[in-house]
Each structure stands twice: as structure tokens, then as C-alpha cells.
Amino acid sequence: MNKTPAEAVELIKAMIPLVANASAEVVVCPPAVCIPAVAKAIKGSKIKLGAQNVHFEDHGAFTGEISASMLRELGVKYVIIGHSERRQYFGETDETVNLRTKAALAAGLIPIVCVGELLSEREKGITFPVVEKQTRVALMGIAPQDVAKVVIAYEPVWAIGTGMTATPDDAQEVIAFIRKTIKDMYSRATANAVRIQYGGSMNPKNATELMAMPDIDGGLIGGASLKAEDFSKVVNY
After folding, report:
1. pTM to 2 decimals?
2. DSSP letters spanning 137-168
3. Cα end-to-end distance, the chain, whole Å
4. CA distance 154 to 12
């Protein structure tokens, strides 16, 4: 929940030249009220548009919610689903993450599905069971060809906005486990097609080390995305 529409446009205009030659795919996910202004600002640039959340119904008595068809009409291509803050503060569950993922795919949006353990769960040694359940339920009932379009973001909750970061080896271990879970559910080809990102405080200082890991395909960037220069350094790691 950062940036007014005017501030978001200012940030985007600063970003555009800095990521123009990036080899990575670049997506920004502004707050919903900023989406129209950002959509206009990124026209003709390398940057694609995402949203931070989506409802699982297409319309109805869901005051304050936004549907996939509404987002699509605004030019949105990606949508973050099940971010730990949505789970922590707004009652998102593994089951509603699954419904939102299906709704996004049905509308032609690419879901960025977030999974990750709490600090207490890591300390208890149950990271793998927690992440496996989140992954399995999120993808439940989704066809292999659709799963291949999904992006998974591994976000250790204890590393979001805290300045703490999983070591590259820790992140690789869990992300490799997520890929194995998808392989067990579907096939090796499907698991290899799914892009799996790391989302726990990736920044200019640690991006190169994290991205060197074989199973880490990208980053879901939080704080470092609020400064154009920092974000561009991650993109061009």
C-alpha cells in the first residue's frame, strides 16, 4: 500500500529507461487505484502490468473487491495471489488462494501464487509440510497446461519487510522442494515450465547470489521496488 497514482507514475517514468535493456521479464503490481495511471505510463515500454489481488467471483455482492475481468479490461496481465500479508491480515486461506488462481487463469491472467512459512513454523522444522500443503491446495483441480503458466513466489514470511533474508542455499532448498512437489502432482515437464521466484527481501545486494541458484527463476520484489534505481539493479542483477 504505497504510492498515490501521481507518485506511481513518477516512479514508473524513472524505472522505464533503467530496465529498457533488461533480459528479464519486468512486471509492476501497483495498488488497484493506481492501475489505470500506470497502464497509461508503461505503454510502449518493456514493463508489464500486474495487480496485487483478485476476487474469485466475476461479479456480485462483494463490496470492495475487484474481479479478474475488471483487471483484464484495464490491461492487467499478472496478479499476485495469497501474499502473506493477505493471509495474515485479511483472512486468505489456501482454499481461497485456489479459487482466486482458477479465476485468474479463466480470465487469461497469469497468477503469481505466494507460499511460505512463518518464523514459528521454520523453528519447529515444518517448513516443507507447510509449503507443500500451500502448493498442493493452490494448484488443486488445475489442468497441467494451466499450471505451466503459473508463477510461484516462495516468501518465507519471516523475511518479508524484516531485512532478514534466507541464505541462497536455504531459498534454493525450499524452491527445489516446491518444484519437486509440482513434479509429483503433474510431471517433470510441468514442474520445469513453472517459474518459481524468491520473495523474501531480494535487493541489489543479494540478487546476484540468489539468482545464481539453479531453481530460482526470478524475484518478487517488495521494498526494493519503491526506488527505481534499486529495482533496476535487481532486474539487471
Report:
1. 0.96
2. HHTTT--HHHHTT-EEEE--GGGSSSS----H
3. 26
4. 25
Cβ distance 109 to 72 under 8 Å? yes
**Structure-derived torsion over alpha carbons of residues 223, 150, 155, 132, reported in degrees to the nearest 10:** 170
**DSSP conformation letters of 74-105:** TT--EEEES-HHHHHHH---HHHHHHHHHHHH
Mean pLDDT by 10 residues, the chain (237 residues): 98 98 97 98 98 98 98 98 95 97 98 96 96 98 98 91 83 98 98 96 94 97 96 96
Catalytic site includes residue 59: no
Identify whether 155 is a catalytic site residue: yes
Q: Which of 55, 83, 117, 121 is catalytic?
A: 83
- Sheet of 195-198: strand order equals 27-28, 48-51, 78-81, 110-115, 151-154, 195-198, 218-219
Per-residue pLDDT tens digits for 100-120:
999 999 999 999 999 999 989
Structure confidence by residue, pLDDT tens digits, 154-187: 999 988 777 777 899 999 999 999 999 999 999 9
Catalytic residue (one of 92, 117, 132, 155): 155
CB atoms within 10 A of CB 69: 15
Grid cell 533488461 in the structure block, residue: 22
C-alpha cell at 135: 502448493
Number of H helices, E strands in the chain: 12, 7
